């Protein structure tokens, strides 16, 4: 049929004994299995056919062959074929398969299914990019337009955090280079934060949209206190030397980039200030008041920026070439805490940037999480231990052990009594902080890469290495 090309799609047409057959070569044929002859042939270039769907009309080629009665028709006779590259081609069955329209980039990856809604000019498609879309056909002479869609991450999220104080929404970051706002109450409220008109740029450059997106997010912080006034989310990205702001209210990337290069005190041969990179951004934090954003770099520097204007306000010097792994600010803007790969926890005066003290721990501090209401600081260490420090006394008050593998994430409960810990041994453990004892543990089918407690204490959310969804416990 197609020079030995494998069959990749089959679809029964509304006509008796006629089937649509799609091949890996991009060819699609209509075949009459009773008479053993080919009725029609169309061809999609670039990739194999993954799905086929029919919408027949009273004058279609199927009716002309007396294989389909006019009572089974519901609109202009159309054949839809979907490819492994995410394109959809629409063919006119009235005119021996003439190409009517092609929807390029209908999905960002392979399309798994296409279906027409009977009696309506609507086509539904689903793809491996974890999206479901409805396409409306207003006229046979015009290409269809996107009517509705539901989508999620098409790569497993690796960083999730509850957003706001009501516990109804979660910010999720994934390796698909997107940041999404996910509602746990109603899916129609979920959306992806826009990174600009990337689809138009991708079309003009003939490249996938994913190539134009920002690198994957490695750190995320927010404060919803001033979310109605200016950007409220701050993110760090893989290998980038500056952090970016986002606005959840406006559903898009913000105006400011924080970090990058700055003028050093040295002077070049041409008499100009020397641009010195601060290194890659490894940690971010937003103050409780929502006015300040902090970035920590691989060069041992923490810088404070104004979230409204994007201007730099302060610099906290941790130490030369000490990679900052975590930043936290208390609820009253009195103390700033920074952790490093060398295992030291640094405490600074929030306003004067003076160093107040230092806590040395016998292992690398991978990351930190501060419960602002209680002043307890959870420190994830490389020796399979989670240490809890008090930022007032600047001492370790609890050591939580017993993990079978490296700790990936921690999260405090809203009342500061519990600390949940996700580890690489596929187990989520919950400790009672006052007693320092393990009170609950459960094993998950796959490794949980990130966890977050609801601000209301009703759910624990988790993201896993092999799932594009967010689990609620």
From TrEMBL:
Keyword vocabulary terms for this entry: WD repeat
Domain of life, source organism: Eukaryota
A Pfam family recorded for this sequence: Beta-prop_WDR36-Utp21_2nd
Domain (WDR36/Utp21 N-terminal) ranges: 4-138
GO process terms (BP): rRNA processing
Residue ranges of WD repeats: 104-135
SMART domains: WD40
One Gene Ontology cellular component annotation held by this UniProt entry: small-subunit processome
Alphabetized InterPro entries for the sequence: Quinoprotein_ADH-like_sf, WD40/YVTN_repeat-like_dom_sf, WD40_rpt, WDR36-Utp21_N
Record's protein name: WDR36/Utp21 N-terminal domain-containing protein
Record organism: Rhizoctonia solani
């Amino acid at each position: 049929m197609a020079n030995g090309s494998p069959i990749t799609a089959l679809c029964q047409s509304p006509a008796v004994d006629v089937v649509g057959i799609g091949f890996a070569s991009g060819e699609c044929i209509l075949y009459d299995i009773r008479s053993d002859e080919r009725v029609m042939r169309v061809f999609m270039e670039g990739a194999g056919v993954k799905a086929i769907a029919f919408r027949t009309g009273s004058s279609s080629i199927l009716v002309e062959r007396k294989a389909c009665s006019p009572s089974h028709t519901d609109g202009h006779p159309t054949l839809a074929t979907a490819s492994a590259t995410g394109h959809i081609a629409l063919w006119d069955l009235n005119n021996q398969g003439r190409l009517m329209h092609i929807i390029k980039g209908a999905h960002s990856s392979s399309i798994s299914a296409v279906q027409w809604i009977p009696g309506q000019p609507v086509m539904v498609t689903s793809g491996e990019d974890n999206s479901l879309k409805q396409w409306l056909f207003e006229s046979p002479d015009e290409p269809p337009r996107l009517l509705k869609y539901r989508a999620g991450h098409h790569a497993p999220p690796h960083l999730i955090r509850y957003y706001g104080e009501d516990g109804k929404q979660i910010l999720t970051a994934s390796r698909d280079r997107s940041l999404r706002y996910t509602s746990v109450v109603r899916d129609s409220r979920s959306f992806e934060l826009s990174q600009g008109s990337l689809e138009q740029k991708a079309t003009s450059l003939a490249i996938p949209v994913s190539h134009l997106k920002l690198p994957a997010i490695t750190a995320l912080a927010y404060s919803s206190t001033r979310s109605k006034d200016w950007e409220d989310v701050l993110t760090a990205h893989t290998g980038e030397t500056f952090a970016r702001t986002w606005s959840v209210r406006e559903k898009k990337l913000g105006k400011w980039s924080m970090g990058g290069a700055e003028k050093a005190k040295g002077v070049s041969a041409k008499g100009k200030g020397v641009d010195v990179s601060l290194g890659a951004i490894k940690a971010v934090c937003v103050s409780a008041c929502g006015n300040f954003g902090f970035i920590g770099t691989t060069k041992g520097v923490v810088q404070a920026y104004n979230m409204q204007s994007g201007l730099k306000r302060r610099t906290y010097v941790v130490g030369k070439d000490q990679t900052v792994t975590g930043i936290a600010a208390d609820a009253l803007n009195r103390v700033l805490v920074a952790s490093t790969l060398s295992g030291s926890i640094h405490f600074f005066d929030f306003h004067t940037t003076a160093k107040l003290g230092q806590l040395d721990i016998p292992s690398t501090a991978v990351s930190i999480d501060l419960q602002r209401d209680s002043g307890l600081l959870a420190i994830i260490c490389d020796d399979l231990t989670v240490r809890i420090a008090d930022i007032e006394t600047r001492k370790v008050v609890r050591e939580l052990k017993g993990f079978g593998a490296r700790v990936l994430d921690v999260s405090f409960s809203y009342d500061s009594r519990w600390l949940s810990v996700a580890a690489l041994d596929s187990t989520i453990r919950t400790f009672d902080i006052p007693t320092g004892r393990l009170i609950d543990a459960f094993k998950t089918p796959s490794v949980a890469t990130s966890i977050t407690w609801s601000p209301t204490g009703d759910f624990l959310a988790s993201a896993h290495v092999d799932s594009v969804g967010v689990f609620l416990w």
